[in-house]
Amino acid sequence: MNGAEIVAKSLLREGIKCAFALPSGEILPVCEYLRDEGVEVIFTRHEQAAGNAADGYARVTRGAGLCIVPTGPGLANLMPALAQAYYASSPVVAIAGHSRYANLDRNAFEEIDGHLWVKEYTKWSRLVPFTQRLHEYVQEAFRRALSGRFGPVMLEIPKDVLNSDCNSEIEFADPENYRYTGRVGCEEKYILRVIELLKDAEKPLIVAGSGVYWSKAENLLLEFAERLSVPVCVSGLGYCCIPGDHKLFAGQASASPVVGESDFLLVLGTRFDEFLGFGQKFAKNAKVVHVDVDPKEVAKNRYVNVAVCCDTGFFLANALRLLDSIPKFDRWAERVQMTVGNINKMFDEAAKGDEKPMKPQRLMKELSEILRRDDLVVLDGGETTAWGLLYFRSGKVIASQGPFGHLGAGVPMGIAVKAVEPEKRVFVVTGDGSFLFNGIEIDTAVRHSLQIVVVVVNDSAWGLVNHTRLLTTKSEERAKYGVMLNENVRYDRFAESLGAYGELVTDPGEVKEAVKRALDSGLPAVLDVRVKLEEISPLAYLLSTSEG
């Protein structure tokens, strides 16, 4: 067999069902072998989109996502997607072509040291020189991507290495034979120390981050919270771990007032980053426990009372056995529920009004009322994401940007989500600025018959930049400098030109019917929804404190 077949067979052992690629001669043989074995290979229009889609696949399956891209400029185009996956702890396995190894360092066409380029924003990257060891490198890539804190990896495979025949006997193996597939644990004494602190608490709070989601520990989280009536704030992909209408849901950790009132915080699988005030949002005398699988992140940016390095699922499963002596915190939970209810009422009130263009709050409220529990929603864009997280209380909601703040991943991620869940409704709610980064991928959705409904929240501006500038400079003129976009653009017609369904929506009373028409079309769809620029999201107020 040749190198391409070795790579493909190694990928099949990892259970890959879908791959995202951009065609080029040196890497297409791998795609052909995968196709022949029943893997769906989705060809995008840009390498960044292939990486974003692999990231989306990883986030919805909680396994590795695969992208295959050309050498040289193709790999360079992939860079932003790898950086986003790195900061979101998303296990993307990227395979890139490379000029012939025999021509290394001879200025061959499109030759770059890509594995060195991406080194800072991957967990591991290598140039593969040996055909007979390709399976080892593929196995190592998955081992690195799916161990500890998940993250992206990259293999560069030269054209001659990929096309050469291998006369050696290749022994393929299943993943459990070459990497650990369980949860990483810790000594019980650390969990016992947490339980002792919790016994003395009066107003405990769980902050559930992406680590809970990647660990597939949402059921354990809910069991823990419900056993003791402990409210749950969320961060990152933690939003997927508790329904927004659950009685113990306490909002986003970055904005919830409950965070500053609690006297005990169990922080699970999230960093003390800027959105958590670098760990300084908590009450001064609160007891803080930090649980994370990555020792480099535990207790970073602030001191804690107990630092626990293990998988969040392992921690919750073992802590659940030790809760019998702790009374429930019902009165505190009821108080938090009242606070959250009052906040929700405030935002529901803000969504009222029939003006045109409509408030973004009104749009999000209309969309929230048609979302089902099993719908999948991908958010993209600054304030669009902020509004969506405030209003969407049903469906599985994935904020595409992550800690890196990367724009444009919404449509590619939506395509990946639909490929994984073809029977479910998939929505992409995106700002108009972020939409056009990868809006051409509507063509990909059309070519591969993947119906996603894209709602473009169109305020004809880089809204978050406009609002943070307005809040910091107090000048409308300065706030508009460089951020205003063409209000005559018709994203619905752009979609129609690609063979998708398109519709312009200007009346808030038409939102639900427009979504219905889009779904009934059976096609990928883009709804160009016009909204007011003047409405400022809480995210803008939060970021304006750190921007000049």
Plain-language structure description:
The structure is a single chain. The protein is of the alpha/beta class and 548 residues long. The protein is built from 23 helices and 18 strands. The strands form 3 sheets. It has a 6-stranded parallel sheet, sandwiched between helices. A 6-stranded parallel sheet has the order 9-8-7-10-11-12. Strands 14-13-15-16-18-17 form a 6-stranded parallel sheet, with helices on both faces. Helix 6 links the parallel strand 5 and strand 6. The longest helix is centred in the middle third of the chain and has 21 residues. The chain starts with a helix and ends with a helix. The relative contact order is 0.10. The mean pLDDT is 93.
Describe the strand arrangement of the main beta sheet, using strand numbers: 2-1-3-4-6-5
Using the CA coordinates, give the radius of gyration: 24 Å
Summarize the biggest pleated sheet.
Answer: 6 strands, parallel
Span between termini: 59 Å
Strand content: 15-25%
